Amino acid sequence: MGVLPLDGVRDRIGVPDVAIPVGRVVELPGRGGSTYVTDTPGPSPDSPTVVLLHALGCTGLLTWFPVIEPLSERFRVVTLDQRWHGRGIRGEEFSLVDCADDVAALVDLLGLDDVIVAGYSMGSIVAQRAWRQHPGLVQGLVLAATTDRFQRAPYEHVFFTGMGAAMLASRGIARSRTAVAAARAAADAADVANEDVHAWALNEFRSTSPWAVGQALAALGRHHSRPWLGRIDVPTAVVVMCKDKVIPTARQYEIARAIPGATIHEVDDGHAGCVLGHERFVPAFLEAVRTVNARRRDFRR
């Protein structure tokens, strides 16, 4: 559901050698905590803004660092760590509804306008919910490696039902040494020199605890957006990962067809292609964002 397989493959993966934006920890008013945010300016003060939402088990920067610099040539680019990921908010439990509300709180805190919300895998689910819960906030959607629901095949139903029960039984771990250690690891991962991108990426990957991933998986198992996808009324692009074994490619095409007017942008890579196949993913993603932005302007006329 979005975990990038970085650990243990440092010497063979093609992690791009790019500058890592410097962010800051910000308190989200009314949301019960703080999160780590990067805010990369666009070419002008009135550049449209793209808020990037990361994949499961990752951080805002770990999913998106290959795309931030080229995207900032035309857009202001914002990332954040979602709940229980990296330096995101630590709450009682992981909730997709809370994640979407966190996005709205950050948009309000930064005083953003004309926002395009883009998500990868788990982030695409949160992006869907951001439109559903805050329709006036979202002016465009880019959904990459996405689906409308996870519990479709019998084996998936068994997996997610069991994951939900396991997470309910272990709620107390939110204050355990495992969670505390993950929070400290996230803080320690902040300022690795840009010349060692591999080491930085591995630190980011390790900053989210296995318990947090389990909680998020349980929440994803409860997601089902098909009943309201047809009501999405903002320009939308779907980036389809054509060799995806985590979220089957056929499901990604299905959700694109279910959203009125959604455009399709194909990437010949698998689920981790946002980083490991960045040379193919970045151009397709940039095209998707530019298409949504152009259609957004037409909508406003």
TrEMBL record:
Domain AB hydrolase-1, first and last residues per copy: 48-274
Domain of life, source organism: Bacteria
Recorded hits in InterPro entries, A to Z, give: AB_hydrolase_1, AB_hydrolase_fold, AB_hydrolase_sf
Any single GO BP term: acylglycerol catabolic process
- The membrane spanning regions, by residue number, are none
Look up the record and report any one GO term of the cellular component aspect. membrane
Q: Which GO terms describe its molecular function?
A: monoacylglycerol lipase activity
- What PANTHER family does the entry give? MONOACYLGLYCEROL LIPASE, MONOACYLGLYCEROL LIPASE ABHD6
* Stated name of the protein: Pimeloyl-ACP methyl ester carboxylesterase
**Organism field:** Nocardioides thalensis
